[in-house]
């Protein structure tokens, strides 16, 4: 995994914690009860970082709300929040990809774009849980 992969996610995280992102997040809170329970973007990211079994159902609900918002309005915030929330998983995936067919930066982008394509194509009606 390249240092650029980590740096990309650090930059995305800084971006989602800015005031304009907070305004977009605030408007979605009225559409999703699970988002309404998160006072700030930081609180949402803290919840998504908590991998304890007692938080799984709430994390699932947040994931579904973020996917729904991304599919509804593919603005940068929703993709960025999903990337930040799932950085540990994406980082582990990227670390396991080896080969010489692509350089590191291309593999980094392949993981990111592949994840976002799955989000775009995911049918939330057909996938009721374990999103």
Essential attributes:
131 residues; mainly alpha; globular
The secondary-structure class comes to mainly alpha
Low-confidence stretches: none
Largest sheet: none
Give the end-to-end Cα distance, rounded to a whole number of Å.
Answer: 25 Å
Shape: globular
List the secondary-structure elements in sequence, H or E.
HHHHHHHH
Q: Quick check: average pLDDT?
A: 91
> Which strand-content bin applies to the residues?
under 5%
Helix tally equals 8
Helix content: over 70%
Please tally the β strands and state the result. 0
What Rg is obtained from the alpha carbons, in whole angstroms?
15 Å
Structure, explained:
This protein has 8 helices and no strands. By secondary structure, it is mostly helical. It is globular and about 45 Å long.
Which SSEs are present, and which pair or pack?
Layout: H1 3-16, H2 19-29, H3 33-36, H4 41-49, H5 56-72, H6 76-85, H7 87-96, H8 104-121
Helix pairs in contact: 1-6, 5-6
Concise summary:
With 131 residues, the chain is mainly α. Helix content is 71%, strand content 0%.
């Amino acid at each position: 995994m390249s240092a650029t992969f980590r740096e990309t996610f650090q930059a995305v995280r800084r971006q989602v914690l800015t005031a304009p992102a907070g305004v977009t997040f605030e408007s979605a809170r009225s559409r999703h009860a699970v988002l309404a329970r998160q006072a700030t973007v930081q609180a949402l990211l803290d919840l998504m970082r908590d991998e304890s079994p007692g938080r799984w159902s709430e994390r699932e609900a947040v994931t579904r709300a973020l996917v729904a918002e991304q599919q509804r309005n593919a603005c940068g915030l929703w993709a960025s929040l999903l990337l930040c929330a799932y950085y540990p998983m994406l980082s582990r995936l990227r670390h396991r990809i080896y080969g010489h067919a692509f350089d590191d930066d291309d593999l980094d982008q392949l993981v990111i774009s592949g994840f976002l394509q799955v989000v775009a194509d995911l049918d939330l009606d057909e996938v009721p849980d374990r999103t």
